[in-house]
Amino acid sequence: MNASSLNEKRQRKIKTQPGFLAALDQSGGSTPKALLAYGIKENAWSSDEEMFALVHQMRARIILSPSFNGDRILGAILFEGTMDREIEGQPTADYLWNQKRVVPFLKVDKGLAAETDGVQLMKPLTGLPALLDKANAKRIYGTKMRSVINQANAAGIKAVVRQQFEVAAQILAAGLMPIIEPEVDIHCPEKKGTEALLKAALIENLDSLPADQVVMIKLTLPEQDDFHAELVEHPRVLKVVALSGGYSREEGDRRLRRNHGVVASFSRALVEGLSAEQSDAEFDAMLDSVIQSIYEASIT
Questions:
Q1: What does the angle CA 167 – CA 265 – CA 208 come to, to the nearest 5 degrees?
Q2: Per-residue confidence band for 28, with pLDDT thresholds at 50, 70 and 90
Q3: 236 and 213 in contact (C-beta within 8 Å)?
Q4: pTM summary value
Q5: Which of 39, 52, 85, 209 pairs with 117 at a CA distance of 20 to 30 A?
Q6: Which of 175, 130, 166 is nearest to 145 (CA)?
């Protein structure tokens, strides 16, 4: 299957099939916390390479679980190190699609800059063209990049959205699907007002996209139910997905059910309750329960 028809098939799955995205993309700074939540303490590794090998084992265990498949999961967002590794002798992205029918995405940002104007822009995306070339060679479908909004500052929010769409243009030009992620911190003091400013900026930028381009958007679960409805219906938006952002899975699911047409893209909430100590049967049963609860919240 050539790249064009493969991407059409994947795009159709994302657009039409019920389900959600699994975010398996914790990178350098958040990996120790992710491993600790899984029951692996920091003294279990002595180098970054050993740490990333451990986190790949954790992710591979999730992906290999019988409950992790394309029936309920539309796509999985990977960290570059996960994309570069293999599962059962296949590159991770190929295994996800060939064996599980799960669409592979790649996290491409390099982390957050220091806060200015109440927001954290992305650090410069050095080496992005080479990374996009590698993503295409690895048969990745799309990318994800995260900024953070901490205050209801109109100038800062516009700067975040402008940067996201500038990078998205490069990603689209490389033939990949960008997930634009301007996260509103759940502790933002004026969260509702911040979300209104963000939506206005997003719509303005979406309206200026060429007619043949679509993007995905990943947002914090909002204070007002169905607040993202205009984005869900926007002709330049393939899918609106929601991050858990520090909410528990139960709270994330509860909020998600009240936002019709938005599906989950949870990371920490997806692995809540999973442990290295569990037997495979216990692990699979817990993961199946987690996936089902997120799936049910995503299909409202």
A1: 35
A2: low
A3: yes
A4: 0.96
A5: 209
A6: 166
